[in-house]
Amino acid sequence: MKEIKGFKSIRESFGTRQVRYGGYAALITLAVIVGLILINLIVGQFSPQIDMTKYGLYSLTEQTVQVIEQVKAPVNFYGLWRPGEEIPDLAEVIDLYTTKNRNIRFEVVDPNRNPGLVSKFDRANTGIPSGSLVVEGEKGFKIITPQDMYEYMYNEQTQGRSIVGLSMERKITAALLFVATGQTPVIYEVTGHQEILLAELGLNALVERENFALRQLNLVQASIPEDASIVLLHAPQSDLSQGEADKLLAYLEKGGRFMVLADQSVMELTNLNQVLGSYGMRFDYGFVVENDYYYTGGASYLGFPDLLEHDITIPLLQSRSSVLVVNGMGISELDAKRRTIELKPLLVSSRNSFLRTYVEDAESESLDTDIPGPIITGMTAIDPNWIQGNDPQARIVAIGSGALALYYQWNPANLDMFMNSIAWLEDRPETLSVRSKSMYLWPMRINGFQMVLYAIIIVIVIPLGFFITGLVIWLKRRHL
Question: Which residues contact 263 (CB under 8 A, 6 or more apart)?
Fold first, then answer.
């Protein structure tokens, strides 16, 4: 049969170079499209997410992951809110917990439709705020209210509080530890010296939500109880008596844990320094005057000292947080101390600072009686520095600022410093780094040298670079 001319030309056209190349391109395009579809289907099964926020607001710390992996018994998360009214940030964080351990289950409970379940957790019959999260396990339960899920700071412009950080992971992880163990360490606040109690600062509820029980102790009237996990001496206005010092020394010799925050408001700390001197350090009377603008908070008695690397400060260093020290008192290391003791500084002022020992003179000019910087304002001690098994180890945190916790609303890092110290004393590494995640944008702090360097780069180097580049291009084009 005679082939139709038109079909012959069509058949011959398939043999041309253009059609062959076009066919190859079409096949490659089709293969790419099919491959993208398959990749999307595979990726959709795993739902990977990358936390691009600066401080990892929507990812879990390594310590939290370790806690989650240790959960062997069922733990229930109850969200007390109406469906669809949950806090978006909280839903993201809860999902991170439930996907890492099948023993952790989450359920939304409408308080209006399930009053019986809500009353089960409302033992004080005071009501549970809507939006709260209840973490329940075999050893008990913890309630996390919406106010507990964020960190706040006082805003002078709005005359109110502003959200500066997320506390959800910290609170949920602490609750998991409690419901898994049922143990609550006890912190005893020493009284009888006009101390500032944590309840006066509104920190008692926070400490208790971190799974610590808070009690008061008058060392004149009683000895340190056997269940004391930490003894806290917070901003005393007078020195310890000899009997109180002896009781503290006996407690530390058994592996006790002691935290003291003090400043120059007390003229003499003879007996307190006797306790600290047994572990190689002492408070130096006076207050730090900071003359380096990079280290000051607007006044010479307000300082942002350097944070030295320590388990307590590492989370703050990672988040580039600065601790505010007001009227910081110096701490020095004694020349004579036991070899088993290990001392580590936490906070150190600048080289341009000095310790004013004649406190009646508030001038920033240096006096002959001043001690030149840098000045240590925070230090830890452990004895012995190396232990094996369950041997007792005494730990001390000494901070030369009785007002450290007082300014936590203006500077949240102060609260992290305080709580990290407590966690280190209790030897709870799994919660030490699970701190609030900052959402606050701090102003850039630069010293004089950095200001000059940046000015030279921006005003001279960059414009000069553009000028030289333009000149070279003009000279080359001129000869074309």
Answer: 235, 287, 327, 328, 329, 400, 401, 402, 403
